[in-house]
Design brief:
The chain is of the alpha+beta class. It has one domain (9-98): Alpha-Beta Plaits (2-Layer Sandwich). It has five helices and five strands. Strands 4-1-3-2-5 form a five-stranded antiparallel beta sheet, sandwiched between helices.
């Protein structure tokens, strides 16, 4: 956009898994993350597992606008992963979408920096 503002969205998904279900989910994570990162409109995509509670996983995603986010949600790899995730969760997961204010001068840390500064989580992929 000409005014320096962006339509980018920050999407955060957090899920509490049933005990032991991370081992079931883990083999799918590298493919899901790689396929998501290669989608048009993906600005960043990171998957985390809490180091203080191994049953909590989070994605931090940045998308170049609502259309890219919707396309991601409709992608076969996303639908497949979300179906598996749904089977693994102990309770409904949270899904938060907010305007990405990392550029210019926003208050959120970009996902690439969050990885290094967030001590309660471990970067998975």
């Amino acid at each position: 956009m000409g005014d320096g503002m962006s339509n980018a969205l920050l999407v955060i998904l957090t899920a509490r898994l049933k005990p032991g279900e991370f081992e079931r989910l883990a083999p799918s994570v590298p493919y899901f993350v790689d396929a998501s990162r290669n989608e048009p409109g993906c600005l960043s995509f990171d998957f985390y597992r809490s180091i203080t509670d191994g049953d909590v996983v989070t994605t931090m995603e940045r998308w170049d606008g609502p259309m890219a986010t919707i396309a991601h949600l409709c992608a076969i790899h996303t639908r497949s992963f979300m179906s598996l995730l749904q089977d693994c969760v102990a309770q409904p997961f949270t899904f938060t979408t907010v305007p990405d204010t990392t550029r210019p001068g926003g208050s959120y840390a970009p996902a690439s920096d969050w990885r290094a500064t967030k001590r309660s989580s471990q970067w998975m992929v």
